[in-house]
C-alpha cells in the first residue's frame, strides 16, 4: 500500500509539474521591465519571454510580437527554448509510461516485474524533465540579476524577475519530487517481491538405492514453496520422503523383526 500511495502521489506531482512547465514555456513573463530611477512612473511595461516580447500600456492595451528570426536570437535564448521543449516532451512521455506501470491501472497486469520497472522508468523521466527545465530558469535568473546590479547599464534597460521564472522553478522541483517518489515506489515493489515466482513445490527424485534385503529405497525431497521466499536456502529446509517398494508380494510384508525405513519429517507408510 505504501508503494501504491507513492506512485499516486508521484504521478500527480509529475502531472502538476508538466502543466506548470508548459505554462512557463508559453507565457512571456520571464523578464519584466524594472521601475527604478526615472522609470518609477511609467505608462509602458515591457515583458520578454522565450517566444515573444509584449508591451502593456496604462490604457489597457496589450500588444505582443513574436521574434522574427530564430537564428538571429541569442544563443542562451535558443538553448532555453530547446531545453524547455524537451522537458515538456519528456514529462508527457513519462506520464504515458507511468499509466502503464502504476499498480492502480489494468495495463500489463500479468507482466510481473515489467510493470514495476515501467513505473521506475517514468520516475527517471520526470527527474530528467525537471532537471532540464531547471537549467534555463536558473540561467535566465542569473542573467537578470547580474544585469540589474550592473552599473554600466541604464535604468531603462534593466529587467526584473518575471512570474514565469518562479513558476518554472516550482514546476521543476515538483517534477523532480514526483519522479523521486515513483523511483522509490519501484524499489519498494521489487523488495516486496511483486512479480516474483516461487520455486517448485513438488517432490523430485534424488536417488535410488538397493538394500541388501531386496528392498528398493527411493529418497525424494519435498520443497515447501512458502519457505523459499526471501532467499531462504531450500536445501536446508527440505523434508526427505523415503518410499519403500518391494519387488515381490512376499518382500512387501518383510521378514519378522525387520525394521521399516524411517522418513525424516513425514511418515508415508503404505505410500505407493
Describe this structure in words.
The protein is of the alpha+beta class and 272 residues long. It contains 6 helices and 8 strands. It has helices at residues 2-26, 75-101, 113-148, 163-192, 234-237, 249-253, and strands at 31-33, 44-48, 52-57, 62-66, 159-161, 204-210, 215-222, 239-246. The strands form 2 sheets. It has a 5-stranded antiparallel sheet with strand order 4-3-2-1-5. A 3-stranded antiparallel sheet has the order 6-7-8.
The structural class is: alpha+beta
Shape field: elongated
Poorly predicted regions are 194-213, 217-222, 226-255, 262-268
Largest sheet: 5 strands, antiparallel
| DSSP helix fraction | 40-55%
Estimated radius of gyration: 35 Å
The DSSP helix count reads 6
Count all strands and give the number: 8
Ends apart, CA distance between termini:
46 Å
Amino acid at each position: 500500500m505504501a508503494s501504491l500511495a507513492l506512485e499516486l502521489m508521484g504521478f500527480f506531482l509529475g502531472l502538476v509539474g508538466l502543466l506548470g512547465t508548459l505554462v512557463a514555456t508559453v507565457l512571456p513573463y520571464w523578464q519584466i521591465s524594472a521601475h527604478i530611477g526615472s522609470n518609477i512612473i511609467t505608462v509602458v511595461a515591457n515583458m520578454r519571454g522565450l517566444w515573444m516580447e509584449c508591451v502593456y500600456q496604462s490604457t489597457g492595451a496589450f500588444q505582443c510580437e513574436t521574434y522574427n528570426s530564430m537564428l538571429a536570437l541569442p544563443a542562451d535564448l535558443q538553448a532555453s527554448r530547446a531545453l524547455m521543449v524537451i522537458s515538456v516532451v519528456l514529462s508527457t512521455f513519462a506520464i504515458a509510461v507511468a499509466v502503464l506501470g502504476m499498480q492502480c491501472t489494468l495495463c500489463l497486469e500479468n507482466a510481473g516485474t515489467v510493470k514495476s520497472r515501467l513505473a521506475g522508468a517514468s520516475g527517471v523521466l520526470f527527474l530528467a524533465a525537471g532537471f532540464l527545465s531547471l537549467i534555463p530558469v536558473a540561467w535566465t535568473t542569473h542573467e537578470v540579476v547580474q544585469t540589474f546590479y550592473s552599473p554600466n547599464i541604464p535604468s531603462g534597460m534593466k529587467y526584473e524577475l518575471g512570474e514565469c521564472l518562479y513558476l518554472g522553478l516550482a514546476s521543476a522541483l515538483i517534477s523532480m519530487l514526483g519522479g523521486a517518489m515513483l523511483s522509490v515506489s519501484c524499489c519498494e515493489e521489487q523488495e516486496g517481491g511483486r512479480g516474483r515466482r516461487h520455486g517448485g513445490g513438488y517432490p523430485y527424485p534424488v536417488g535410488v538405492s538397493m538394500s541388501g534385503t531386496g528392498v528398493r529405497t527411493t529418497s525424494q525431497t519435498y520443497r515447501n514453496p512458502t519457505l523459499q521466499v526471501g532467499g531462504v536456502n531450500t536445501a536446508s529446509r527440505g523434508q526427505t520422503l523415503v518410499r519403500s517398494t518391494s519387488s515381490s508380494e512376499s518382500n512387501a510384508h518383510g521378514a519378522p523383526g525387520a525394521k521399516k525405513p524411517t522418513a525424516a519429517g513425514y511418515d508415508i507408510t503404505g505410500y505407493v
